[in-house]
Recover the amino acids of this structure.
């Protein structure tokens, strides 16, 4: 089978309005592969969560950029959401859901990313930024 | 947004619509909190039949209002959950907190 490779990168301000643009673009990009509509919805949620986290947490002064890189390799789509903000001091804790949190989102963002994508990794350096990388593979369709 | 939040049979009904995300959650949060305060509502129904997308920002907004009503000794419910939203409601755990009804009328009667 021929390897399918493609890549798009978008850079945008940390505005709440841009979360929707990012997830719709991400789902459009993934539609090059044979994902089901339900899987495309899952991708939209996962990307929405990763970008929302960057918008909410990365830049306390609400000024900065988020980079969303999208890649297709073989039958997988890969998303990287990168910011150059304050970073995450305790990644393990950040990934845990906390229903008692004062934050109304309850840390559910990572729960959805992990539920809906095949692989999620987080790299972060305090005061330098964070990269969330998510991979979702497309099951091959058997042609009749 | 105000006309999307109505009081019916003593139940506050929030008819949410469109994409419920970081960008829209704040508006609903303020509007529903304001309605709860104005009406002193004890019962709240989230009607999701016109919602096309929801993420943790939208679900978090709902959970926050649920907690507010619960603290007053009241109850909340959801209705109009289509296939697209069903899994999100499940994974978030909201289904364990609030009963789910098929229609708005059922939710108003049941809550």
């Amino acid at each position: 089978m021929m390897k399918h490779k493609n890549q798009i990168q978008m850079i945008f301000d940390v505005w709440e309005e841009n979360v929707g643009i990012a997830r719709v673009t991400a789902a459009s990009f993934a539609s090059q592969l044979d994902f089901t509509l339900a899987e495309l919805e899952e991708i939209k949620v996962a990307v929405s969560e990763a970008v929302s986290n960057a918008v909410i947490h990365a830049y306390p002064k609400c000024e900065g950029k988020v980079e969303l890189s999208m890649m297709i390799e073989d039958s997988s789509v890969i998303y990287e959401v990168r910011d150059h903000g304050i970073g995450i001091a305790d990644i393990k804790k950040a990934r845990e859901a906390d229903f008692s949190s004062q934050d109304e989102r309850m840390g559910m963002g990572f729960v959805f990313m992990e539920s809906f994508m095949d692989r999620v990794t987080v790299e972060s350096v305090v005061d330098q930024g964070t990269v969330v990388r998510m991979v979702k593979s497309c099951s091959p369709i058997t042609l009749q | 947004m105000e006309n999307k939040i109505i009081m019916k049979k003593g139940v506050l009904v929030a008819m949410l619509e469109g994409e419920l995300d970081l960008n829209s959650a704040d508006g609903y949060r303020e509007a529903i909190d304001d309605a709860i305060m104005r009406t002193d509502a004890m019962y709240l129904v989230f009607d999701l039949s016109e919602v096309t997308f929801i993420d943790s920002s939208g679900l978090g907004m709902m959970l926050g209002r649920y907690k507010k009503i619960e603290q007053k000794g009241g109850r909340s419910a959801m209705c109009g959950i289509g296939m697209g939203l069903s899994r999100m409601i499940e994974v978030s755990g909201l289904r364990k907190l609030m009963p789910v009804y098929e229609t708005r009328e059922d939710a108003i009667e049941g809550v």
Residues 15 and 47 of chain B are 5 Å apart (CA to CA). Chain B touches chain A through 19 residues (CB under 8 Å).
